Amino acid sequence: MARKPAATAAKAAPSNTSKEELLKYYRDMLLIRRFEEKAGQLYGMGLIGGFCHLYIGQEAVVVGLEAAAKEGDKRITSYRDHGHMLACGMEARGVMAELTGREGGYSKGKGGSMHMFSREKHFYGGHGIVAAQVPLGAGLAFADKYLGNDNVTFTYFGDGAANQGQVYETYNMAELWDLPVIFVIENNQYAMGTSVKRSTKSTSLFGRGEAFGIPGEQVDGMDVLAVKAAGEKAVAHCRAGKGPYILEVMTYRYRGHSMSDPAKYRSREEVQKMRDERDAIEHVRELLLQGKHASEDDLKAIDKEIKDIVNDSAEFAKESPEPALEELWTDIYAADLPQGSAEENA
Amino acid sequence: MATEILMPALSPTMEEGTLAKWLKKEGDAVKSGDIIAEIETDKATMEFEAVDEGILGKILVEEGAQGVKVNTPIAVLIEEGESADDIAAPAAPAAAEAAPAEAKAEAPAASAVEQVNTPEPDRSPDWPEGTKMKTMTVREALREAMEEEMNRDETVFLMGEEVGEYQGAYKISQGLLDKFGPRRVVDTPISEIGFAGIGTGAALAGLRPIVEFMTFNFAMQAIDHIINSAAKTLYMSGGQMGCPIVFRGPNGAAARVGAQHSQDYSAWYAQIPGLKVVIPYSAADAKGLMKQAIRDPNPVIFLENEILYGRSFEVPDLEDFTIPFGKARIARSGKDVTLVSFGIGMAHALEAAEKLHEEGIEAEVIDLRTLRPLDYATIIESVKKTNRLVTVEEGFPVASIGNHISAYVMENAFDYLDAPVINCTGKDVPMPYAANLEKHALITSAEVVDAVKKVTYK
């Protein structure tokens, strides 16, 4: 059943991780970080409105789990969703243009930061109501089981959502019906401004599945290789038809809950310590350099390439026009199923 | 190359702020993520982090400055080797490249309610004349509709509390488990928000779930998924994510079950763009509309009624028939007054029409059948003929369906009205248990008769 993490096991992993894999993780995590920094900047300029929740610090979670996924697997998450979209291959341009509310965005500007989707990449949102994505994710897995394929669904939620009642209704049904769903608790230690310790008596969130018969484990979410290894184990469990699995991924967000977070609930030293000692991108950077997989110049070239992608996305997001006023009245009702028949998923 | 650092917007509503404190001074190296200043917004004092790397070449706005507009350059970041002296203080603050120009054009539709109906009402028959009819209860009609659709489409399945082994709390799903097995007739635990969410997720993935609520009272636990997850996702995804799902179950007052189990949710759901709302009265409508609901690519709220389940009606004996949404049925023709109703309200409206007939008043009775889309054209056409309108529904009076229809008719057929519209509704009280009080809380045909006499000045 529930296990504590083997804290040191993951550190030994690099020996069986190829240069190509490490470079991919580095690139993917860096893309998320630079993208989010740029989004923060555009927010500051008033180009992005409303709520904007940045993923900076948590990059290893989605990049590690995407490394364990195969084509056809689904993912669904909360409103802190930009990283998930980039990690599953959605275009930086479309995401950024949605943030600026433009026609070129994934939802034609009608969804915003918290509501983006891609049927092509099997990304089911982007949900603004805390924990609502948990039963929805189990429902995606229900459909895959119903259709008899071996896809799994990664259902991401935070330590805050873990205290919503619908999570436990879902745990019960997911285990009762052996649904192929991986519940990924991204424990960044703060639900908005409330730390886990202030909201939760029993702080081992992965252990809460035990009451329902769902195995779970805690994972070091600042180590992309540890996340990938745990993801592979969870995926194997689900694909084998053994039902759901819980991963509590211990991570940390460097930025505020949203852009308007005055950050009075934690010390600057605490944030700085994580950045200095546990940064997930620095970790892979060191592995690459120490293993002589890449030189400083190689990494600089990647940095430049990422910067170009991000700058291009920002330009696109500024240039793309606002949606036509007629768009106000479209997409309220479907004339037919946009996704076609369910056979696509079979 | 020098980069201007602009006064940031640090909350959704911030337009200007106070530059409380500089934490870096001119000449300091700045890394991405470093706190460079503290800024007071309309809500709080915020730390302002650098995005780009470089050297703080020049501070343009001194600390303590108040009312600094968002996007005003506050400092200049230079690269190594550049000199701060090279920087010319920027002239006027760059006119916001930021905020996109306010939309100038008028919104395309003049009315807030999008007109989906054709101006001419659709009076075509629901099934060919001369069709053989059979007598059937509403309960049997609903079960037949689900069975036929499950036979037709493998992706249709039923889930809910007691739908399988128990054969349905109200026996609507009787026999379906035996016929289709537990894969397609799924008994759930008592977890409304959980299974409503799972059903919605399955629909987003392309299945066509029918989610039964034992009654719609319990759907209040799940209403977030009905509205936020099912109804809005197509719009929020720019048309990518359809959600073909039916939420069905008994709605409204049953008998002597008290306040928490007796409420009509018609007006609640009818308010939500993205939902379709169906509320049949007769067995034929129950069957034809249920089949249509299951085939619809959108989320459909299907409001049934426990008291009507056992009532018998004539149903066309056809292999396959559906009734389109947004097409009201004229249940009785008349020239003196229009009665508009739906669901169990139709029982009161028809009873009242019969009594009025005995007194020489001919009422035209319109059964809306669907509340979203709503058949405005049929109502308006009838009002133009009778010049008088009474609406009849079981729900609460405030913000009722009748209120909405009154407003629409006033706006679109004011000159045709010879009397104010009257809305007959349930009383503005939680449903009492005592038999005599419950009777008074509900709408009665006598009240409808009285209302008609008022609007006909009889």
TrEMBL record, chain A:
It comes from the Bacteria. It catalyses: N(6)-[(R)-lipoyl]-L-lysyl-[protein] + pyruvate + H(+) = N(6)-[(R)-S(8)-acetyldihydrolipoyl]-L-lysyl-[protein] + CO2. InterPro entries: DH_E1, PDH_E1_Alpha_Subunit, Pyrv_DH_E1_asu_subgrp-y, THDP-binding. It is an enzyme of class 1 (oxidoreductase). Keywords: Oxidoreductase, Pyruvate, Thiamine pyrophosphate. Gene3D superfamilies: 3.40.50.970. Residues 28-325 form the Dehydrogenase E1 component domain. Its cofactor is thiamine diphosphate. This is Pyruvate dehydrogenase E1 component subunit alpha. The gene is pdhA.
From TrEMBL, chain B:
Residues 90-112 have a biased composition (Low complexity). It is an enzyme of class 1 (oxidoreductase). One of its GO terms (biological process) is pyruvate decarboxylation to acetyl-CoA. Its cofactor is thiamine diphosphate; (R)-lipoate. Its EC number is 1.2.4.1. It catalyses: N(6)-[(R)-lipoyl]-L-lysyl-[protein] + pyruvate + H(+) = N(6)-[(R)-S(8)-acetyldihydrolipoyl]-L-lysyl-[protein] + CO2. It comes from the Bacteria. Residues 120-131 have a biased composition (Basic and acidic residues). Pfam families: Biotin_lipoyl (PF00364), Transket_pyr (PF02779), Transketolase_C (PF02780). Residues 90-131 are annotated as: Disordered. One of its GO terms (molecular function) is pyruvate dehydrogenase (acetyl-transferring) activity. This is Pyruvate dehydrogenase E1 component subunit beta. It comes from Paracoccus caeni.
